[in-house]
Specification:
546 residues; alpha/beta; Rossmann fold; Luciferase, domain 3; GMP Synthetase, Chain A, domain 3; nine-stranded mixed sheet; 17 helices; 25% strand
Length: 546
């Protein structure tokens, strides 16, 4: 079975049922107005407020795009890039590429023109699908992309250098293209988040995609009746593979274009969402809005909401404890993964292990894990080492980068670059990224441990700890702290709050500033190093990481 078979199966079993809903809260709403009432109000020009498609329509759209690609000379294994904001077109286009026997290449919507060009060339893309937000960026580079033979534009007012997606697929057959797909065929190239310099092209086969769907359904017990709220960008493995759980059971999913707490709660309430995946900043914003009285739970229908889960970064236990006090009937899970392991799920906490909040959990369904020292030997339980994972979702390679592949793939084991430890009950705790470890006076200092402590302060919205160069000690820990709205905080107060930490773990420098995060919620520490350490140190760091 492949991921394509799941879509075809859903179209047969649930053809007239809703597969996807897109919600675009394009301007301010009063909390008393329902989505249905709002749909009667004249929306802003350009994009409908709410759109939906059934599983049958989903399959037909995917088939039409697959047949369009085939008429344009797309061959098995060709690379087709997708550069779109979250929309109802995104997933049918993704599956259309797969149905054509091609390899789909999702691109980060934050990429500037030259980064887009780099990724298109790195992945050997011969076709590109893009939306209106990217016209200017594509226009900058379209004359310098000799390998890209076809460009399809999704939206109104198609630029002259592309073909209109909507107009072209209207003339294509909605019947299944007769392309045989095997589990071992190449399926997708995902680019790493680029937190260590230029993004790497991560190649996965169809076996990895179908395994991620099985893992998601197994971990969260998804049924056909569950409704999944998807907010993060679909170009990323995290959002895509969590959605694969809905695909596995033929359940409805809601694509929400916005992260405001009231928008999230309206979507959950009106669309009857039962599973919501949040990033730490969004969960924090929800809790803060509730504390301020800006978000009033009694105004929403939330009884069906059964699971809140978080991934993509270390999760502060203090935040989850706050969440469960407000939502005592929620199940909670955290999922660890990386794009090289087809996103979330190679390690997960498990919904029955809330007593271990703070851990990333144990090996996920179908996965094995090890924690090893620098020589590749298993460490003693309780010691810190590098986390390694093994399973059907491990990437095939970094595309066209044998050296980088050999650095992280050793046999069937993927060396993640994350430092971790296992407690006496077999639960794994993420300590930090290997590259983010601060060595101060010969001591290894793990920033996540300091960040977890500082986040417990009631005035702290977010925090990132990085190493700053220091002549005598080599590095010192600096805490960049983002303060909650309506609060004040001083260096002295943070110093007092950190006095309970061992002396070498206390931050030597306190900086009050915004903490930048990428679209998947990860703190952009290279950006912070560039700001506070200087370009030379960043260049040295990138050289080491490369």
């Amino acid at each position: 079975m492949t991921i394509i078979d799941l879509l075809n199966q859903n179209a047969t079993l649930y053809g007239n049922e809703t597969a996807l809903v897109e919600i675009n809260p394009c301007f301010e709403l009063e909390s008393r107005i329902t989505w249905k009432e709002y749909s009667l109000i004249q929306p802003e020009p350009g994009e409908p407020f709410r759109r939906s498609i059934t599983w049958s329509e989903f399959e037909k759209k995917a088939n039409r795009f697959a047949n369009l690609l085939l008429t344009r000379g797309c061959h098995r294994g060709d690379k087709v890039a997708v550069l779109l904001m979250n929309s109802i077109e995104w997933l049918p286009i993704y599956f259309g590429v797969l149905k054509a026997g091609a390899v789909v290449v999702p691109l980060n919507y934050r990429y500037v023109a030259e980064e887009i060009k780099y990724c298109l060339e790195k992945a050997d893309c011969s076709m590109l699908v893009f939306g209106p937000e990217f016209i200017g960026r594509i226009e900058e580079i379209c004359d310098r992309l000799p390998k890209v033979k076809n460009m399809f534009y999704v939206g109104e007012d198609c630029p002259v250098f592309a073909d209109s997606y909507d107009k072209m697929i209207a003339y294509c057959s909605s019947h299944e293209p007769q392309i045989s797909i095997e589990e071992t065929d190449n399926a997708a190239i995902y680019f790493s988040s680029g937190t260590t310099g230029f993004p790497k092209a991560i190649l996965h086969d169809h076996r990895a995609l179908i395994h991620s769907a099985r893992v998601e359904q197994k971990h969260h017990g998804q049924t056909h009746d569950d409704v999944f709220l998807c907010i993060p960008p679909l170009y990323h493995t995290g959002a895509k593979m969590h959605w694969f759980g809905s695909l596995f059971v033929g359940g409805k999913s809601v694509l929400l274009k916005g992260t405001r707490p009231d928008w999230i709660f309206k979507a959950v309430s009106e669309e009857r969402c039962s599973i919501v995946w949040l990033l730490v900043p969004w969960a924090q914003d929800i809790l803060d809005a509730i504390d301020r009285g800006d978000l009033r739970l009694e105004e929403y229908d939330l009884d069906q909401w059964r699971l809140m889960h978080i991934g993509a970064q270390p999760v502060p236990p203090s935040m989850i404890n706050r969440w469960l006090k407000i939502f005592p009937n929620h199940k909670y899970d955290t999922n660890y993964g990386l794009s090289e392991s087809i996103g979330p799920g190679c390690v997960h906490l498990g919904v029955d292990n809330v007593h271990k909040v703070g851990a990333i959990g144990k090996a996920g369904f179908g996965w094995q894990v090890r924690i090893v020292d620098e020589r590749g030997h298993d460490v003693v339980r309780g010691d810190v080492g590098e986390l390694c994972v093994k399973g059907p979702g491990v990437m095939k390679c970094y595309y066209k980068d044998e050296k980088a592949t050999n650095e992280v793939l050793r046999g069937e084991w993927l060396f993640t670059g994350d430092m971790a430890m296992e407690d006496e009950d077999g639960f794994i705790f993420l300590v930090d990224r290997k590259k983010d470890v601060i060595i101060t006076g010969g001591e290894n200092l793990y920033p996540v441990q300091i960040e977890d402590h500082i986040r417990r302060h009631e005035a702290v919205k977010d925090v990132a700890v990085i190493g700053l160069p220091e002549p005598r000690l080599g590095e010192i820990a600096a805490a960049i702290i983002e303060i909650k709205e309506g609060y004040t905080l001083t260096e002295e107060e943070i110093a007092d709050f950190c006095a309970v930490l061992p002396r070498y773990k206390r931050p030597r420098r306190i900086i009050f500033a915004e903490v930048p995060r990428n679209p998947t919620g990860k703190i952009e520490k290279p950006k912070l190093r560039k700001i506070y350490c200087g370009d030379n140190l960043v260049a040295q760091q990138n050289e080491i990481e490369a």
